[in-house]
Amino acid sequence: MNSRGFCRAEYTWDRDGNLLAENYYGTRGEPVNTDLGYAAAVYTYVTDSLGNTHTVTEDRFAADGSRADIEGSYSYRRCSWSDTLRASDEYFNASGRLTRPTGGYAQCLSEIVRSKNEVTITTRYLDANGKPLIGSEGGAKIVSVFISYISDGKENKLLQKELLGMELSTGAREAGETEWLLLTEEIYGTDGNETLGAKHWHRLVNTYDDHYNLTRVDYYGTDQKPIMGSTGYASLTAAYDAEDRLIKVDYLDREGRLVKMLDGYARITYTYYSDSRLHTERYYGADGNPTM
């Protein structure tokens, strides 16, 4: 057997490439527990209105067929979805009790409130006893507001996200699909009070133009004043050409002045070929001069 504790592994997939089952066997064809603590696992999925697949159930089993009892991990997982939005994510031990995997959470619960063109998602992280704990965003409660528009399906929008390095939306790809753009996000601590999150801001505000291009990002502290985020700037401004192609990004300090952020520059500009493929990118320092 190999270092992971099995001789043979078998995997089953659906036609879309989603893993349905994994099974591990010893040298005599008998089920064996691997280094992950289980001999078999079974998965089920749901598909949202955009065609994206999401995990709904994950069940792990020991070599004797019982639910796997894995120290520091979980035996089974349950997720629920409201179309493209995750409503809950919960982990259980072999006895059916909520459990918190090492470094993670037992429950991630989201309250989703929809209006005509806006959705507010309040996400809470809890331990196995139902007490608040800090999630990956650096808070126990995250309040996010999204606005919607009908996607035009332009590749330029996808390039914008890549160049800005931000996940701004729920991922519509085809023209006519509803795209949800992040408008604001706020971070709260285990005591329910405003706090600075993992990226050193309490509140994020995104601004968009009439074509739903991101034109500005602002970070605020718990005092509601501009604050320098962990990436080294308090605000970001973005400019576009007539074809909605990103042509300039400025990084600003709390006073609105160019600032050399964590990646070593304060401004970046882009030019494109006639078919909208990226042609050049140029970097500038806080003095407005070219930099390396």
Describe the structure.
This protein has 292 residues and is mostly beta strands. The chain has one helix and 16 strands. The protein has a 16-stranded antiparallel sheet, covered by helices on one side. A hairpin with a 5-residue loop joins strand 3 and strand 4 (53-61). The longest helix is centred in the middle third of the chain and has 10 residues, at 155-164. The N and C termini lie far apart (52 Å). The mean pLDDT is 92.
Helix tally? 1
Cα-atom radius of gyration: 23 Å
SSE pattern, N- to C-terminal: EEEEEEEEEHEEEEEEE
Low-pLDDT runs: none
User: Outline, from the CA principal axes?
Assistant: globular
- Tally of DSSP β-strands: 16
Lateral arrangement of strands in the main beta sheet:
1-2-3-4-5-6-7-8-9-10-11-12-13-14-15-16
Helix content: under 10%
Strand fraction band?
A: 35-45%
> What would the average pLDDT be, to the nearest integer?
92
Going by helix content, strand content and strand pairing, the class is: mainly beta
Largest sheet: 16 strands, antiparallel
Q: What is the terminal separation in angstroms?
A: 52 Å
